[in-house]
């Protein structure tokens, strides 16, 4: 589903590459933790998958397609296959839970009928079926992150990328978020989660990919966090 083939990325004006010769394959349906110290290249990795960046060398393939060669008009279609969730939720203020999730579908031209079935189904999956008419500003952090997850997967993307999704949440709330991500993964979505949360990584024992200063230094099945922050 995601393939990095000898990928290097150097930002303009930088002497050191942010990623160096990274080769890996993430199969359909996998759950992968992406770990590494601050500045090790995790966000660069994520941005390459989303084709916000192009590799300086090598190729990034998403669902079999080399993203470098994609013309600009095909990029939105690529991104629709990839749901994204961030540490800071990024919800629309002043709107309800339902409106936040529906918005993602409205802007991509879904019919009202599809929106009426997809939005409640997605909110049900994250455990917010009873909060659809609440303003997101009035929800707890954990609930807001659930809304963001519902929005990310409402169009049933093949891949979900979560960049520090528990970074602003307390440990108990984080466990709830991980249950939701696990449920989405079990339904067939490939999940890549960049995280500094060692407790979660050590508890869930999924595949762990570690970056260190731009190098892929570990790719471990049923892995642990594995380093001291
Ligand atoms: N837009 C940019 N221009 C120049 N250098 C950048 C840019 N973005 C990131 N970098 C550099 O690339 C390297 C990797 O950064 P990246 O943001 O991918 O790390 P990260 O692992 O996501 O860090 P964090 O855990 O703090 O989010 C760092 O040295 C960073 O300073």
UniProtKB/TrEMBL annotation:
GO terms for molecular function, please?
ATP binding; ATP hydrolysis activity; transmembrane transporter activity
From which domain of life does this come? Answer: Bacteria
Tell me if Cytoplasm is a UniProt keyword of this record: no
Q: Which gene specifies this protein's sequence?
A: ftsE
Q: Which organism is it from?
A: Raineyella fluvialis
Q: Give the protein name, as stated in the record.
A: Cell division ATP-binding protein FtsE
Known role: Part of the ABC transporter FtsEX involved in cellular division. Has ATPase activity.
Q: Where does the record place it?
A: Cell membrane
Q: Which GO terms describe its cellular component?
A: plasma membrane
The entry assigns this protein to a family as follows: Belongs to the ABC transporter superfamily.
Give the multimer and partner information. Homodimer. Forms a membrane-associated complex with FtsX.
- How does this protein lie in the membrane? Peripheral membrane protein
Which keywords has UniProt assigned to this entry? Answer: ATP-binding, Cell cycle, Cell division, Cell membrane, Membrane, Nucleotide-binding
The chain positions of domain ABC transporter read: 2-229
Q: Where is the signal peptide?
A: none
Q: Name one Pfam family in it.
A: ABC_tran
């Amino acid at each position: 589903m995601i393939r990095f083939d000898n990928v290097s990325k150097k930002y303009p004006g930088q002497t050191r590459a942010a990623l160096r010769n990274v080769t890996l394959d993430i199969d359909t349906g996998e759950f992968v933790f992406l770990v590494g110290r601050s500045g090790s290249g995790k966000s660069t990795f994520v941005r390459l998958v989303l084709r916000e960046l192009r590799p300086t060398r090598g190729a990034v393939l998403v669902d079999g397609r080399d993203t470098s060669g994609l013309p600009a008009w095909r990029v939105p279609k690529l991104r629709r296959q990839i749901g994204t969730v961030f540490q800071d939720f990024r919800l629309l203020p002043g709107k309800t839970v339902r409106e936040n999730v529906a918005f993602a579908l409205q802007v991509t031209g879904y019919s009202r009928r599809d929106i009426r079935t997809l939005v409640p189904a997605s909110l049900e999956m994250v455990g917010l079926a009873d909060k659809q008419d609440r303003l997101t500003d009035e929800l707890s952090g954990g609930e807001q992150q659930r809304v963001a997850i519902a929005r990310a997967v409402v169009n049933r993307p093949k891949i979900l990328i979560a960049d520090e999704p528990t970074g602003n949440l307390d440990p108990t709330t984080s466990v709830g978020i991980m249950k939701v991500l696990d449920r989405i993964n079990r339904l067939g979505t490939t999940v890549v989660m960049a995280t500094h949360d060692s407790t979660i990584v050590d508890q869930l024992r999924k595949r762990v990919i570690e970056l260190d200063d731009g190098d892929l230094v570990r790719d471990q099945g049923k892995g642990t966090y594995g380093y001291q922050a």
